[in-house]
Design goal:
The chain is mostly helical. It has two domains: 2-113; 116-147, no CATH class. Helix content is 71%, strand content 0%. Helix 1 (2-22) runs antiparallel to helix 2 and helix 2 (29-65) packs antiparallel against helix 3. The radius of gyration is 22 Å and the shape is elongated.
Length: 147
């Protein structure tokens, strides 16, 4: 499972960085890679991470609850919080992963992303529709910042 997580993360980043470095108009090759690759890698990463955390939680049960003379208390102190953090990660991945996936699909189909309103002159984006303060400041000056 660790390999699945690593591959999903790596492929996502390799597909994302050319878009960040080179930029691309909507519909360009780097834009398509950036939006289409997560359609496959996001579910693989979410499920792989949840499974790995669940395995850690289940396999540390024996270490925590097998009586040993000296190491039981140390194992409980160290593994206890990690086990519950892993269990929380499982809940987050399986609970919130499906919530985020539809927006990834919308972007991949070309129906997602930020909606921008054109100003009266048609060249600048309205500051009110900007996603960040930097975008808003640049939009007010008639400039555009591409992420």
């Amino acid at each position: 499972m660790a390999l699945t997580i690593l591959v999903a993360w790596s492929v996502t980043e390799v597909a994302r960085y050319p878009w960040i470095v080179c930029g691309s108009p909507k519909g360009g090759l780097t834009h398509k890679l950036r939006t289409l690759v997560p359609v496959v890698t996001f579910p693989l990463g979410v499920v792989g991470e949840a499974y790995a955390c669940w395995r850690f939680y289940a396999e540390t049960h024996a270490q925590l609850f097998t009586p040993t003379p000296e190491g039981a208390r140390v194992a409980e102190l160290l593994l206890g919080p990690l086990r519950y953090a892993a269990l929380l990660q499982v809940a987050v991945n399986l609970g919130l992963g499906p919530v985020g996936y539809p927006s990834i699909l919308k972007k991949a189909c070309g129906r997602g992303g930020r909606r921008k309103k054109a100003r009266a002159n048609g060249t600048a984006h309205a500051a009110a529709s900007a996603a960040t303060p930097v975008d808003g400041a640049l939009a007010a000056k008639g400039e555009r910042f591409t992420h």
